[in-house]
Amino acid sequence: MNITGFVCFLLFLALVAAIAIYNTRKMRLNTTAAYFMGNRSLGFWMVGFSLFLTNMSCNVLIGENEFVYTNDMSVMAWGISSILAMIIVAEFFLPVYLKMGAVTTPDFLGQRFGPRLKKFVSIFFLASYVVSLIPTVLYGSAVALNGIFHVDEALGISYFAAIWLLVIGVGIIGCCYTVLGGFKAITISDLVQGAALVVGGILLLAFGLRYLGQGSVVHGIQTILASKKEHLNAIGGSHDAIPFSTLFTGMFLINLYYWGMEQYIVQQALAARSLSQGQKGISLACFGKLVAPLFLNVPGLIAVHLYPHLTNTATVFPKLIGDVLPPVIAGFIAAVVFGAAISTFNAGLNSSGTLFIMNLYKQWRRNAGDRELVKAARIFQLSLTVVAMYFSPFISRFNGGFYTYIQKVSSFFSVPVFTVMIVGFLTKKVSEAAATIGLIFFIVTYMLSQLVFDLPLHYLHVVAILFVATVVLMLVVAKWKPMTTPYTLHNQAVVDLKPWRSRHWFFLILLILMAAAFVLFSKAGVAQ
């Protein structure tokens, strides 16, 4: 990319920052409600775009396009099938969180089962963000930006040094957003960046098809549809990396956990100014998931035809941007990619501060006022950023294995936590003892299934089987030793709990479009 593209990149980032600063200039950040939740004042546009962009990290942009290039469209299932999980969250989970006035998702565990389980899950969330989420987001963004701008070549430095330099840059900018601007500044920038991501995806698709078709978009589409059609299939077989059957077992459970219980995601919806606005925001994010294949998957399809013998497949997405786009638009897309990285980083950093202060520090310093809590949050977030910036570049030394390892290890805890929470949602007498036993049982048995026994089952099917077994175990323990007083959800809401009246019609449309997307990319559609 030439100097024109780089200038466009900087100008767009400056525009987003200026919009965020202008809209938060009068907002005081001296309370935890303002700093962590934006005073619960978000409308559905901010909720929707924040959810959407927080999910669109560089790791996803790079990883899914690489998967399509090396395999097929079956990776699309993770995003498209999540629409069902998001609808369930909007209809059933969000009303419970808002009714109890939750700031973090472990708040529900604290009310339902007791403070010990709340503290354990909060520590787990923090550990996963420190070890997995924040460092890998920084590393993924550095890889993408180096692939677009070729920083190592431009500065005459090693690849590792370039990654470290970019990690520091992304970390400093993201930390400034979070520490100086708070949650509201993050969501305002997400609104602008989210809209830009949709526009950028359409531009990349149009220019990519035109480049492939040697000046004709139609010819480019015909090229994709005429050959290598195995890459067009989103219906994975039993021997594929993502079998279609997993949509109905472990994938559904993990999606429901991610969109309904993962703190850095759910916090975007908890900051809505009403239940109705939160439900509309989640629906807007669902529409975003429907258009996401434009930049998550289709560029990988184009690359299959442009680069049939690419050795470093992780460079598929940034290479396509550099090759097919004019410099000005390439700079704009680079800024959008950078914005996606910043959004996920900011969400992780803000949620880490929320969990640490509200669920741990506040329990230790019971008499601490809002000013002390906000100050402690900023110190914690700065410290976390420094640790992540130091650690992130070394991910490149693991030759791709480290990130896969982290993702697999996270499954040891995500679905167990989901299992305990879902039982808490649906029952009244399951005790803390039953929840603790269930949590330990799931973690131990899943670890054995993956590390000791060689089971002839996909790990997502194993997750689903263990989910059912753990639920049964918890119910049996609860039958033997139930809670003395059945749990009652008390109304502690600080926002309007009136639901969105038209939501069911929109939910139905979303489900129909979700099914249509799978039909389109199948042997009954374009993969015929």
Automatic annotation (TrEMBL):
Its main location: membrane. It is found in: Membrane. It is a multi-pass membrane protein. Coiled coil: none annotated. The chain crosses the membrane at residues 6-22, 42-63, 75-98, 119-145, 157-180, 192-212, 241-260, 281-308, 328-358, 379-396, 402-426, 433-453, 459-478, 505-526. CDD domains: SLC5sbd_YidK (cd10328). It comes from the Bacteria. Keywords: Membrane, Transmembrane, Transmembrane helix. The keyword Zinc does not apply. PROSITE patterns: NA_SOLUT_SYMP_3 (PS50283). NCBIfam families: PRK10484.1, sss. Belongs to the sodium:solute symporter (SSF) (TC 2.A.21) family. This is Solute:sodium symporter family transporter.
